[in-house]
Design a protein that fits this description.
Belongs to the bacterial solute-binding protein 2 family. It is a single chain. The strands form 3 sheets. The protein has a 6-stranded parallel β-sheet with strand order 4-3-5-6-7-13, with helices on both faces. The protein has a 6-stranded mixed β-sheet with strand order 9-8-10-11-12-14, sandwiched between helices. A two-stranded antiparallel ribbon has the order 1-2. The protein has about 325 residues and is α/β, with parallel strands linked by helices. The chain has 9 helices and 14 strands. The chain has 2 domains: about 160 residues, 3-Layer(aba) Sandwich (Rossmann fold), CATH 3.40.50.2300; about 140 residues, Rossmann fold (3-Layer(aba) Sandwich). The N terminus is likely disordered. Helix 2 runs parallel beside helix 3, helix 4 packs parallel to helix 5 and helix 6 packs across helix 7. Helices cover about 40% and strands about 20% of the residues.
């Protein structure tokens, strides 16, 4: 599973949330009766409701444990819900807990952002700060809203960094020229159009002599390896791969190894543990790694801050990204 699309129901859960694994532990949060904190004229419990897409994917199960651990260290209780990819179930679960008086804040990885309107209005009416994945426009807003924080991945920035890094590799190791395969994300994936455009434009700018001669869709690692292997048969002189997710990068390594061919340049967007180990070993030139540990901390800390004034406009957060190379 790729670490890039965990905030979108539309993406295949190829997201093993690579970066998340760096900090997730099996620790649980604090238990017992929630304590309270002062907030804009009333007390809100120090209880966070965490509603991910589902707890079935190991990555999201691990993320829920990480949230409980981080919040528990700060003396917060965490209520974890499991809508199991069902938008109606998610809104029902959230409505029940928001109406119960138990919730002091909510963090929602929405199954369907368009279904969240009533939940957002309920949270606002009750003065309960809420954080949702995605940009304001995905929820029908033009900017920050009272009591609501938005948190999203900047796909244009990620694509630009991915293309720039492959261009650097082509310049350094291939003399500025070479045939490139683009392992793209599936249609409907979050931010696909802006990501792909930014990546291809950045590669062209960084290495004008590089040519993208084939594109495959990287759904999962096995399929990616099969499709890239097939591409190699028709284009045996492929020398570089630009992968929009971890599955594409790891599948490319497998395909080239199986064909006993050298893969000089490969760059990745996502940055799971295996990818980062391959970067360290020099098999992958660079990974544009999403920093989910930092995002978890900024998300929770923002909700804590919002309890002080739940009626004030929330923030628009961006998931941090970091270019990781063998030397970094």
């Amino acid at each position: 599973m790729s670490s890039r699309n965990w905030r979108s129901r539309r993406a295949p859960f190829a997201l093993a949330l690579g970066g998340v694994a760096l900090f997730l532990t099996a620790c649980s949060g604090s238990s017992g009766s929630p304590s309270t904190g002062s907030a804009a004229g009333k007390d809100l419990p120090k209880t966070l409701v965490f509603s991910p897409l589902s707890l079935a994917p190991p990555a999201l199960k691990g993320l829920s444990e990480g949230v409980k651990h981080y919040a528990g260290d700060k003396k917060w209780e965490v209520i974890v819900q499991d809508p199991n990819f069902d938008a109606s179930k998610q809104t029902q679960q959230l409505n029940e807990v928001l109406s119960s008086g138990r919730a002091g804040a909510a963090w929602v990885i929405a199954v369907a952002p368009k279904s969240m309107g009533p939940i957002l209005k309920t949270a606002q009416s009750k003065g309960i700060p809420i954080l949702v994945n995605g940009r304001p426009d995905e929820y029908g807003f033009s900017g920050p809203q009272p009591g609501i924080t938005f948190d999203y991945i900047d796909y244009a920035a990620g694509g630009k960094a991915l293309g720039e890094q492959l261009g650097k590799c082509v310049t350094e190791k291939l003399g500025g020229t070479g045939k490139v395969l683009f392992a793209a994300s599936t249609e409907g994936s979050a931010g696909k159009k802006e990501f792909d455009t930014a990546a291809l434009d950045a590669l062209k700018a960084a290495a004008p002599g590089a040519t993208v001669v084939q594109t495959v869709i990287a759904k999962d690692r096995t399929q990616s390896q099969t499709d890239i292997g097939a591409a190699l048969q028709g284009k045996p002189d492929l020398a570089a791969v630009m992968a929009a997710n971890d599955e594409g990068a790891l599948g490319a390594l497998g395909a080239f190894a199986a064909a006993k061919k050298n893969l000089t340049c490969v760059t990745d967007f996502g940055g799971n543990d295996e990818v980062l180990a391959s970067v360290k070993d020099g098999k992958i030139y660079a990974s544009v790694a999403l920093q989910f540990q930092a995002d978890m901390a900024q998300s929770f800390d923002t909700l804590v801050k919002m309890q002080g004034d739940p009626k004030a406009n929330g923030e628009v957060l961006i998931v941090p990204q970091k270019v990781v190379t063998a030397g970094s």
